[in-house]
């Protein structure tokens, strides 16, 4: 791959994840401030991305992979997405805001697969080259957090305007990206294939089925963090919380380096249990943290993101790939994504909103009993740990299910 191609792909990834990071982290705070949204309404807005995760494979499989060059359709989606992000700043009630966010999510989520497809099509050795390109996406998310936090705009609609400008820029830039013709042109469409039907054989393996259920359940605690960590940190008075939350991305980048070594050294079960245990510690830290003498606990909860995410989700992707084998690994990864960021997050965003509303202090829409709120995902994570410990059995040398 030429250096110039690598630079263009790196810029593509940077903008792709800068857009997401600019509005997503602080959306709950914005909704509470400007729309007086309830927990359920905030949870519903976050569930839009989960719905889009479920639907987007059908769009990519039926349209993008069959009729259009990937870079062109990505350009159109991001230009339309810019308009939707701008529209989000113009609505002043929760119902239309939800539909705008859902519409935007349906436009954005397919671009993740499209950007990956564009990158892979230019690589001679994806295993070595893709991580160096994808890391620019993490960098984009980090820069977005520093920008939003540094400008102290997380309660304003400026976050959506910044994301809209970046989306328009990437939309135009996409047309200059390397040509990536439709890879499934002329092939017969199959809903089963798009759902990852070939990977269902994995669920015949008891160990993978136990893991699969645990992966869906652990997305409930994850939803609490994504939807309500920023409103919580704002409410307790932490200075520039969006900027502080970027420590979680730094932590993620650091811990991911250790995963290949630990995966082979201590085995998949201990790796996954470490990830789940970190969720318990994170929410205990949030429950007892404050912006005074216990500020360190808030930082601990944020920094634990690296272990929470990497040791469960990244390890989960690796376990899925090893369990699936070469023939069905793509379908297997699609099935895992559907289960976690689709089904699991859909359940989690709905449930977390109900819990936050339950512990809203009477007479105040922006004051909550956060200690009681954070106990709930901590207890769920403990329950998942007990379930996983008792029932998951996998040899250190993972046997393929297919």
CATH topology of the largest domain: Growth Hormone, Chain: A
Count the beta strands.
0
CATH architecture of the largest domain: Up-down Bundle
In the CATH scheme, the class of the largest domain would be Mainly Alpha
What share of residues are in beta strands? under 5%
In round numbers, the mean pLDDT is: 86
Helix content: over 70%
Low-pLDDT runs: none
CATH superfamily grouping of the largest domain:
MFS general substrate transporter like domains
Overall description:
There is one protein chain. With 402 residues, the protein is mainly α. It has 2 domains: 3-182, Growth Hormone, Chain: A (Up-down Bundle), CATH 1.20.1250.20; 194-391, MFS general substrate transporter like domains (Growth Hormone, Chain: A, Up-down Bundle). It is built from 17 helices and no strands. α9 (206-235) packs across α16 (329-358). It is globular.
Compact description:
By secondary structure, the chain is an all-alpha fold. It has 2 domains: 3-182, Growth Hormone, Chain: A; 194-391, Up-down Bundle (Growth Hormone, Chain: A). It is 76% helix and 0% strand.
